[in-house]
Design a protein that fits this description.
Radius of gyration: 23 Å
Distance between the termini: 103 Å
Number of strands: 0
């Protein structure tokens, strides 16, 4: 009897662990796609960076944010951070102007919490304050996203969903209860009917990196264009 009970408990534990691993894998794919679309890169690049660097998803989001605004490779940013450099020194090393860095820093471009709060808020149309509250209660970023997706599908507050999840730590049960499939997460975003616009294509973001763009010659191009116009008049 005791042996049978131990066997049953062992099988139950293995089933729970398998269920947790399956849900984590599904949510990892959601995170991979979110980062890829946010910063205009491929999902393969994101997945490779995550597995090879052993970075947390939170840190990877900040690295890609700095890479994007600094117009440099993500592995370059990560290498500098691994040397123990602060974000100010990293920005200096990749050629970012101090004024640009300070402006982006105030916007949260180098703060992992703010990067993810804003990203999830924009994609899932959930107030930043609510995203932040869920993240504070979540064991992981995956669980935060799981709560938001389930909440959007079931029309419940993600804060209530995460509290329910914390009681059982079983996404499969909650997914079945509310009829949610994490692979269909796009249906629960405000961009489900249109292509997501990456930051580098948004006017507000272009304005934020204007000093960097000017450094690469937009002003010079204007001068050349003007001088070419004058030469044309002479002929």
């Amino acid at each position: 009897m005791i042996k049978s009970l131990k066997t049953f408990l062992s099988i139950s534990c293995l089933a729970i662990l398998a269920s947790m691993a399956r849900a984590d894998a599904e949510l990892d794919r959601v995170i991979t796609t979110l980062l890829a679309e946010q910063f205009g890169i491929s999902t393969k690049e994101v997945a490779t960076a995550h597995s090879s660097s052993k970075m947390s998803w939170e840190d990877l989001g900040t690295v890609y944010s700095a890479s994007h605004y600094g117009h440099t490779r993500a592995d370059t940013v990560w290498r500098l951070r691994n040397q123990g450099l602060g974000w100010g020194e990293v920005a200096h090393r990749i050629g970012m102007q101090p004024g640009t860095f300070n402006k982006l820093r105030k916007q949260g471009a180098f703060d992992s919490d703010k990067v993810w709060d804003k990203m999830l808020s924009n994609r899932f149309d959930v107030p930043v304050s609510e995203v932040r509250a869920v993240r504070q209660r979540s064991p992981s970023l995956q669980d935060t996203i799981g709560s938001i997706v389930v909440g959007r599908k079931s029309h419940r507050s993600p804060k209530l969903v995460i509290e329910e999840y914390r009681k059982h730590r079983d996404w499969e049960t909650l997914k079945t209860k509310y009829g949610v499939n994490f692979s269909d997460w796009r249906k629960h975003t405000k961009n489900s009917l249109k292509k997501h616009v990456p930051p580098h294509q948004q006017k507000s973001q272009v304005k934020a990196i204007k000093p960097k763009v000017e450094k690469h010659g937009l002003k010079d191009n204007g001068k050349h264009k003007g001088s070419a116009g004058k030469g044309h008049k002479k002929t």
